[in-house]
From TrEMBL:
One of its GO terms (molecular function) is nucleotidyltransferase activity. This is Molybdenum cofactor guanylyltransferase. Gene3D superfamilies: Spore Coat Polysaccharide Biosynthesis Protein SpsA, Chain A. CDD domains: MobA (cd02503). PANTHER family: MOLYBDENUM COFACTOR GUANYLYLTRANSFERASE. Keywords: Cytoplasm, GTP-binding, Magnesium, Metal-binding, Molybdenum cofactor biosynthesis, Nucleotide-binding, Nucleotidyltransferase, Transferase. Residues 181-323 form the MobA-like NTP transferase domain.
């Protein structure tokens, strides 16, 4: 069958992001107060709150950074813009009296019973039920709806919201993207004059094989980034062909996100013959999923190393946007984004071998 458009893996987003909750069934004032409290409580995560206004506002929505104030005129916003914005955040809290979200925190409020019932079709995944007027009887339709869903919801009252906040915290932790590794082996190796990934420095292993086993020793499954048309059988792990031709490492990273946009990618160049398990574990242990990336920096370096780094899913869109500005170096993204830096005490694990002279110096270490 002819397929007009290439098949692509879509990220597992709701209406906005990966972890989102609509608060529904009580007053907007009460829900928005809780949204602000929870956003402050989980300030270590990137949090977005979404609400609605009861009347038209005379000026467009605005963005403020320090003293710089942006007022964009956007009268054509749609559901795809919601997701383009929301996927950059760890937690999205939505005023469900105005807009739906993937999971719901339902308030049983006598004063708003009719409002809640009008929105019962939006209650597709009830995360929690909060009794506003004490442990009053729930409407029968809500009991039935909650019993039909996968997990029993957290049930509590307005005077005891800590279990609900704890539940949101657990949902955030369980939503941390899984980690995969990408070994970059698709370069031309023009300075070396031979494939750097197939060089053997010790133990009879090529560098691609050594890095693959290094990742496995740290509990991370690895894939190999290769040029289109490369023989996959020549590698010890699944390959990911580069679909952004001529874009270097940035294209390889984007190609990995094309295959799995819900994973965080640990990116390793294949010209790091002295990279060891301890350094890799230090990077993984320092991972900050709420940032765009986690990267190492050597003691003699001003900038982070872009090819010994973990890129979170939110970095995908940002990397593409940097490409539209004409910047294809991943280091440019790291320098100009919120990242976690791991400062190393030793430069040796970051040693590159890109030329025959550098290769021979490294080999002399193992003689």
């Amino acid at each position: 069958m002819h397929q007009k458009h290439p098949k692509m893996t879509r990220p597992a987003l709701g209406h906005y992001g990966r972890t989102e909750f609509a608060l529904v069934g009580t007053t907007c004032e009460r829900m928005e107060r809780l949204m602000a409290e929870w956003a402050a409580r989980f300030a270590e995560y990137r949090c977005l709150t979404v609400t609605g206004e009861h009347r038209d506002h005379p000026t467009p929505a605005s963005i403020r950074y320090g003293r710089k104030h942006f007022t964009p005129g956007m009268d054509d916003w749609n559901e795809y813009d919601d997701r383009l914005l929301g996927q950059d955040y760890d937690l999205v809290l939505v005023n469900g009296n105005h807009y739906p979200a993937k999971r719901q925190i339902v308030f049983v409020d006598e004063a708003k019973a009719a409002t809640l019932e009008r929105r019962k079709e939006q209650l597709t995944d009830i995360f929690a039920i909060v009794h506003v007027n004490g442990p009053a009887a729930m409407p029968e339709w809500l009991k039935t709806l909650a019993s039909q869903q996968h997990c029993p919801p957290i049930t509590t009252t307005m005077s005891l919201l800590e279990p609900l906040a704890d539940g949101i915290g657990r949902a955030l932790k369980s939503g941390v993207p899984r980690l995969r590794a990408l070994i970059l082996a698709g370069g031309a190796s023009s300075r070396m004059g031979e494939d750097k990934g197939q060089l053997v420095y010790r133990n009879g292993q090529t560098e691609v094989e050594r890095l693959y086993h290094l990742c496995l020793s740290c509990g991370v499954a690895a894939s190999i980034s290769v040029r289109e048309g490369t023989d996959a059988e020549a590698y010890p792990a699944p390959v990911i062909p580069d679909r952004f031709l001529g874009m270097g490492p940035a294209g390889a990273i984007c190609s990995a996100f094309l295959e799995d946009p819900d994973a965080a990618w640990l990116v390793l160049a294949c010209d790091l013959p002295l990279l060891d398990t301890d350094t890799l574990r230090q990077l993984i242990d320092a991972r900050a999923p709420e940032r765009y990336a986690t990267a190492v920096r050597g003691p003699e370096r001003e900038w982070p190393e872009p090819l010994i780094a973990i890129y979170e899913p939110r970095a995908y869109q940002r990397l593409l946007r940097f490409l539209t500005l004409g910047y294809s170096c991943p280091r440019k993204l790291l320098i100009n984004s919120s990242i976690q830096l791991v400062n190393l005490d030793d430069m040796l694990p970051l040693t590159n071998a890109n030329t025959p002279e550098e290769r021979d110096r490294v080999r002399s270490i193992f003689r």
